[in-house]
Amino acid sequence: MEEELFKRFGKTFPKGTILFHEGDTGEDMYIINTGKVKIFKEIGGTEKVLAVLGVSDFFGEMSLLNRKPRSASAEVVEDAKILVINNSTFDTMIRSNAEIALRIIRILSKRLDDADVQIANLMIKDSSQRVLVTLIKLADGGTKIDTGTFLKADTDYLAITTGLEKEKVREIVERLMKNRLIEQTNNGILIRNKDNLKKYLDYLVMKEQFEGM
């Protein structure tokens, strides 16, 4: 079925291809078959990465839903095969397949949650507090296992979500690992005890408030 879909709607894009720019009219949505795509905005002359999407992720659907210009730009960062779905095909898919419609609703809901985290982080000046707030919020949707809560996230994702430089996030993550609050694995991050993360966050907030008194 995937091969059939790719024959009908698939295109191959080399690394570096700009799929669309912020402000462009949106006439297609995209579903990634292979490769990766970066979603970004230009803010004050600086590129701000909003997300790096991979296999099975889709994007560009908002311009089809609300008929507004693209709210961000998209660039292929790893050679990719992508399904390009136009407006009429998209409408047909939504009307005829409840599973697709439900999946879009779920992903849009997650994006709203991610946006809430990013907005909350903009109000926090301290870098360590930003990372801690993000980890605590992500833990609510994490996978509960015997040794804690597993998050399918890495330092790159944390950098995107917090708006911090990758090197700064790595430094904070290493500090949290050293204090045995989290554990970094090949597949993601393990939060040993969310309550301990909250206590550490409270400690940093209090230290900031009473510093210099």
What can be said about this structure in brief?
With 213 residues, the protein is of the alpha+beta class.
CATH fold category name of the largest domain: Jelly Rolls
Task: Count every helix, treating DSSP H or I runs of 4 or more residues as helices.
Answer: 8
Model regions low in confidence, pLDDT < 50 over at least 5 residues:
none
Total E-strand runs:
10
Order of helices and strands: HEEEEEHEHHHEEHHEEH
List keywords for this structure.
Arc Repressor Mutant, subunit A, 10 strands, 47% helix, 213 residues, Jelly Rolls, 6-stranded antiparallel sheet
What does this structure look like?
A hairpin with a 2-residue loop joins β7 and β8. The chain is built from eight helices and ten strands. The chain has two domains: 2-96, Jelly Rolls, CATH 2.60.120.10; 121-210, Winged helix-like DNA-binding domain superfamily/Winged helix DNA-binding domain (Arc Repressor Mutant, subunit A, Orthogonal Bundle), CATH 1.10.10.10. Strands 1, 2, 3, 4, 5 and 6 form a six-stranded antiparallel beta sheet that branches. A four-stranded antiparallel beta sheet has the order 7-8-10-9. With 213 residues, it is an alpha+beta fold.
